[in-house]
Amino acid sequence: MIVDATQLDAAHAYKLLIGSIIPRAIAWVSTRSADGVDNLAPVSFFTAVGRKPPKVSLSLQPRSDGVTLKDTFVNIRDTGEFVVNIATLPQADVVHRSAFEFDSEVDEFEALGLAKDSCEVVRAPRVKESPISLECVLDRIFAAEQGNDHVVWGQVVRFHIRDELYLDRGRIDTGAIPVFGRLAAEYNLVDNIFTTPLEQDVLEARQGRRMARLDGEPDDYSPIDTAGWSPSGSTRA
Fold first, then answer.
1. Which end of the chain has less neighbouring CB within 10 Å, N or C?
2. In this predicted model, what pLDDT tens digit does every residue of 23-52 receive, in sequence order?
3. What's the domain count of the chain?
């Protein structure tokens, strides 16, 4: 199958992107509005873009109406700061629920029953239960040529790392973090580690094997095109 990307609308392009670029790390982004309301949302168009100084990138689509800017973007634009929290498997459901389109006046930490912790530099709170959080100040914003998509670069000014995860020589004990990523409209648990080359019998044993579902749904299940999914990264139900 060859798909001409120039003929796709935003929704169909989004489907192909999220199904092709897998797995994607999830930035659980906390912000505080100019009026002091705290917001929390998952962003899976997320990566590191610099080392010195360390920088991260977030790509933010508008709300599910395709027009209204998400609170996360508005807060970053207006205050110049945000926090990237790393979530683990026990937080998966609340991460998913934090993608709901709450009213801008709602404190999403309170709505989701999450504890806050203070940052050193930025005013936005971090998620207390997250093992790693990155305090970020706005570096720059790129606007898409069409539509209301934006890319935000933030400079990391503080790393908050749980003590038992911080190893000698400035390493993080990644094997101790039950982190999960984003596939298309689903999630995947990172539960194995390897270096290359792998033994041939290991490769042969896994050839053609599907991912194991942890939720009991059939192999061909996908939330895409259900009532709860939207091509904006927001969750409707």
1. N
2. 999 999 999 999 999 999 999 999 999 999
3. 1
